[in-house]
Amino acid sequence: MRPVWEVEVNSMMTKPADSEVISAGLVTVEGWAWSHDSVALVEISKDEGQSWIRGKVDNKEDQAWQKFTAAVDLERGVGKLITRATSESGMKQPLTGRRNHVHSITVNVK
Q1: What is the CATH number of the domain that holds 74?
Q2: Strand order in the sheet with 77-87
Q3: I want to staple 92 with a disulfide (CB 3.0 to 4.6 A). Which of 15, 43, 86, 100 is the partner?
Q4: Where's the Moybdenum cofactor oxidoreductase dimerisation domain (predicted)?
Q5: In the sheet where 10-15 sits, what is the strand order?
Q6: Within a domain: residue 23?
Q7: What is the pLDDT of residues 7-60, one digit of tens each?
Q8: Which range of residues forms the domain containing residue 49?
């Protein structure tokens, strides 16, 4: 068995909730990100990863998770939001295929 020395970079959205009905316009996306070193960047995509919106990440304190927020302009319809984090050492969450792949939610924008 191999010991765990480092935690892979990861993130998850907590607001809005998955399948939540929200109003069109500027929406604040919130969540948490973590890594063995500090998280340097969190990005949100509303177009399946074609483009990314940079969020604000709180500073790391001890080994605590880091809160992030991002303002995302959403149009009416059903869509998907994806979040990914990048660590200070440059490690980025993969889009697929790993246990720490990007987190996604569905939103119903009215």
Answers
A1: 2.60.40.650
A2: 21-22, 103-109, 77-87, 39-45, 53-54
A3: 86
A4: 4-100
A5: 10-15, 25-34, 66-74, 56-57
A6: yes
A7: 899 999 999 999 999 999 999 999 999 999 999 999 999 999 999 999 999 999
A8: 10-105
